[in-house]
Amino acid sequence: MSMEKRRPQLNLDELHQLKWLLGGVIALLAVWTVFYMNLEGWTLMAITTGAVAAVMIWPALPSRVPALVHTLAFPAIVLFFAGDLWLTTEVLPAMVRLDMLLLLYRGITYRQRRDDLQVIVLGLFLIVVAGVLTVSLLFAAQILAYTGCALGFLLSITLTEAAKGDGDGAAGAGQPGGPPAWATHTDWPQLFRRLREAADWRVVALGAALFAGVVGLSALLFLALPRFQIENSLFLERFVIRKARTGFTDSIKIGDVSEIVQDTGLALSVDVSDRNVVPAVPYWRMLVLDQYEKGSFKLSPGLRLTSFGRFDRTGTVVHGEARPRLGPAVYWTFYLESGVSRYLPLAGDFSVLQFRESQNFRQSADLAVLALRDEPVSMTAYRVESLDTSGTLPDPGFAKRWRERDPRTAARGLLQNKLSVSPADQTRLRQAVETIEAGGPGPVAARDFADRAGAWLRKNHLYSLNPTIPGGEGDPLVRWMTSNEGGHCELFAGSLVLLARSAGFPARVVTGFKGGSWNGYSNNFTIRNSDAHAWAEVFDAAAGAWLREDPLAVGSAAQNDAANGEAALAARADRSWEARLDSLRVFWYRRIVNFDQRSQTETLKAVKAATQEAGRQLRERVARLADAVKTWLAGPWNLRRLANVLGFACAAAALGWIGWEFGRGWWRRLVRRPGGKHGDPVRHEASRWLRRMTVEPPRGAAGAEVVAELRRLRFGARATWPEPEKIFRRARQVWREAARQSKRQPGGTSASV
Amino acid sequence: MSMNPGDATEWSGPGGRDATRPRFTWNAFLWSLVFPRRGHRILPTVSGIVLIGLSLGIGTAAYNSSSNILFITLSLLLACLILSGVMSWLNLRGVAWRLRLAVPLRAGHEAVATLELRNAKKFLPTYGLWFDLVARAVERDVVRRAESTVTARGIDVREVLAKAESSESDRRLGLRTRLEPSGETRLEWVFKPRRRGMMRVELAGVGSLFPFGFLKKDIGTEVGAEAVVWPAPVEYRRHAVASARRPAGGERVPRAGSGGDLLALRRYATGDSHRLIHWKASARTQTLLVRQFAAESAEGYALWLRTDAAVWTRAEQFELLVSFAATLAEDFFRAGRLVATAVDAEAPRPVRRVHDLELFLNRLAVVQPVENSAVAGEQPVAKQNVLTFAPDGARGVAAYVDGEKTASA
Fold first, then answer.
1. For residues A45 and A406, what is the distance between their CA atoms, to the nearest angstrom?
2. Nearest-CA neighbor of A195 among A5, A19, A4, A23?
3. A549 in helix, strand or coil?
């Protein structure tokens, strides 16, 4: 019997079981992409998760599936795909569901080597599609987990194939039609125990280090791979249709925006290159709604046609109406989450807008609105230069139309002053306008009227997310305005627009976001859906511009006078745990998703600068150290100083010697392999007995023989060893005998062995 | 058996002390990437081709769409490929092997080639290697020039290929279990040499799919061992007449045996009977000595093998002759009656020990028909008790003692 303790090795059945487990984990990881892919596949995901988890735990289950099922599986899957495609007419979601179905089938059947490879490729497809479609931070976590599992899976396949050997392909195959041998006696806790026993912590640590190396290397490759701006759009977008989850569409009923407010999900993250230009309360305009009818605002067809034009444009660069400012340009980088809207949030007019990738869009320079052709399927990133956040939107085209308007057709929609309410409501509006204008000297300017109307509305109504619109006849908005009920932003904004139009000022509702929090970790604006807002814009004919008027805010002048820049941001800084998570997401967007040729160049420059700086600092430090040594050497030397130096040198040498002597032993013990030469338990045991016998030497020929055998075990070649157990037993007997004799004869001689 | 000691008994491979291996230089390393060493090969497997295809597809899509998600995936795939290379290198690092052959080898009998493996790494095990072993006959005297499709006209290529294939057997041995750090293991290949002659067993290559099976890495080796394959023993029939009549005047030779006459004294060896100890001599020399007696029967025979090509025209018959001669030589030696052996006109060799018999069998292993062997003229061995051979019909071979048919095969 050998006493040598060796790490056990997993047998073929255990390797098969490990492979089976890892294959299941890979299939599950892949189908769980449905959680964030936002494609219809929840049912299939639930079925796959349940089925694969069940067969992972009970691997004998697949053998109970009738052979007919396997025969019909492929035609059934093809039929499912064809039907899915025909019913939904969306290629990508159908392909994703097909992929999940194939994973389900492969996950619940016994797999050969090629089937294992199929599982890996199918899973990778799902994860990559999910990543490309969503650009989510979850993709990073998932691809890392998937890569680790897939590498482990491939390793287990290689080890299983090696353990099977040549001409042993049927190993573990079991009875025809029945489960394979490895599947019939699974004991997962025992497998994990065996895994733990078989694993050497140094090998596991090396494996972990190698995996970390893979991640680091892939990061380096990601940075170093040459980029070219081919300006092609994402091809997957063609195969999927996405609808906005929020209500930011070009037709909004009263209450739609308030519904968005209930959602606290992230809508938008904004980076700004110069914090001093950030307004205290930024308004992110998305959509202009000029037509009002029966409690619903929408973008009128006329305005859509005249402002947006008929055709989509494709490109990465959009030029706005704003002129570039003097001095260094201020860049605003927007990361708009998918599902918010196809209208891009902007604070006002801009000079240049650049997309990360080529996009199909329509632009209205007059409205300062940019709309993508389709709802974006993933996060949309764009950078805006010289964004005008003043709240005043010059519109020379409209000003010209307004000046040249024909009084007979003055109430046409294009002039954004049409009141689509009954005469009775118009009368009530007129009365309200008179109340608002009362007390003012002469005709009231647009700004004054808007401020006064806002104040009048705030005076009569409280803010409430659960408004009550009084019953009765007439327009609901007019009914609410003339009541004292509380209301939300849409009611306030809509009322202001009706009042302004009644007073003869062109006005419109604008929807978007207001404010947001300043993330104290990643230093960016975080705007959530709960920041959704609606406000009004009133045309000032004198200025030829649209003036922002938020009836829920204190007067416009006060808004503009509020503190801007760092102080404003400090006041709204968010340092919560949620902000921490959001900062991760922004880091992902900034450094990974938005990484392009320019970023690559900047990174290289930053690396170069950091290297140069580090070199400079090192040189300075060395020079300072050299100076200090020179100064120290040049100092006056006396006996005490010399003694101090010598003492210090001796202490250092002693410490070095101790480290060398004991450190080596410590290191050897650390790296000692169980069962290796140094860690051989037989040699250890023999050494122990020899030490004992030095203290209590055995007597007689038998004792000498035992000592000789022990020495052979301790120092001899393994091939010459006698049976260790027998020798140790004899050593114990001899040692006990010697101890007994020495007790009987105190003061006996002791000889060294 | 002879072996090339430099080839087989020294440890070879990445962990072996190979004195011929050049010192590492970056220049040589880079050139080796362009022109790998003989037998060194890295080929993608099916999963490797899938990985490369995936990388190409994802790379194309990444550049086409500027999607950084795809660039991340591409980077990860490339990093995995590099990791695969690093792990494969780590796996092979410190591994050494040597080949040993268990002698004697005999045609038609199972032989064992043992491949000893050693992992010199301190704490990293080695997994999943395979070793391609080839055993092939060595034709020393046949020098074939290189042929082309033009010059090889008239040569039956199929026949040449079939012959080459028949003289070669190969096997892939897999390392099924983990080779522990600082551990050793051995793999055995049991093969059956088909023909007598010189045989070379080579480790043709070492390969691995470790760790992920993307790439099949082959390392060519030049490890090999040569051995002589003795002729296969044959069944033969003794003829009653010849065996009944004891040849007169046989040569008497002193040889160890179980007779009554003291032949010599020798050192005591484990297993010797205590009764054979010569106590007086032992006391005198302070060493245990035992008595050695002469054999009871001292009549010996000389075996003379003539390989005249004119006589042995059929190859099968000649092979039978050689096997028959080897069998008789062994049987006679076992009976203590083989005195000397000779082949054609070569000087006779006395047979006193097993080693002498082995030398004769070695000679038989490579003997070929020669033209005009009778030219040598005189019989090289004694005139009496000479065992000779002659064709017996179209296929058989007969053995004669002093011209009298003694046995046939």
1. 62
2. A19
3. strand
Least confident of A403-417, A474-488, A544-558, A632-646: A403-417
Rg, chain A, Cα only: 39
Fold (CATH) for B5-230: Immunoglobulin-like (2.60.40)
ipTM strictly over 0.90?
no
Phi, psi dihedral angles at B233 (to 5 degrees): -70, 150
**Residue of chain A nearest B176, judged by CA positions:** A163
Q: Kind and range of the H or E element at B263?
A: strand B256-267
The values of phi and psi at residue A537, to 5°, are -125, 130
Cβ contact (<8 Å) for B66 and A159?
Answer: no
Using CA coordinates, name the residue in chain A closest to B216: A158
- Residue A596 is predicted with a pLDDT of 80
Contact list, B127 vs chain A (CB under 8 Å): 158-159, 162
Reported confidence tier of residue A50, pLDDT bands at 50, 70, 90? very high
Q: Is the peptide bond before B211 cis (omega within 30 degrees of 0)?
A: yes
Residue-by-residue DSSP string for B256-299 = EEEEEEEEEEEE--TT--GGGB-HHHHHHHTS-EEEEEEPS--E
Closest partner CB to A217 (pick from B82, B123, B212)? B82
Give pTM, 2 decimals: 0.73
Domain boundaries, chain A: 12-186, 396-513+532-562, 621-667, 681-744
Nearest to residue A308, comparing CAs of A266, A236, A250, A259? A250
Chain B CA closest to residue A124: B73
Q: Which residues pair with B113 in a beta bridge?
A: B101, B189
Q: How far is B124 from chain A (nearest CA, A)?
A: 6
Contact: B174, A166; criterion CB under 8 Å:
yes
Q: Distance of CA A174 to CAs A110, A171, A544, Å? A: 12, 8, 86
CATH T-level topology, domain A396-513+532-562: C8orf32 fold (3.10.620)
Cα angle A465, A467, A469; round to 5: 160
Sorted by where each begins, the domain ranges of chain B are: 5-230, 237-253+300-408, 256-297
pLDDT in tens, B260-290: 667 778 888 777 788 888 888 888 888 888 8
As a whole number of angstroms, the distance between CA A39 and CA A130 comes to 9
Q: Is A326 helix (H, G, I), strand (E, B) or coil?
A: coil
Q: How far is A709 from chain B (nearest CA, A)?
A: 21
Residue B69 and residue A228: Cβ atoms within 8 Å?
no
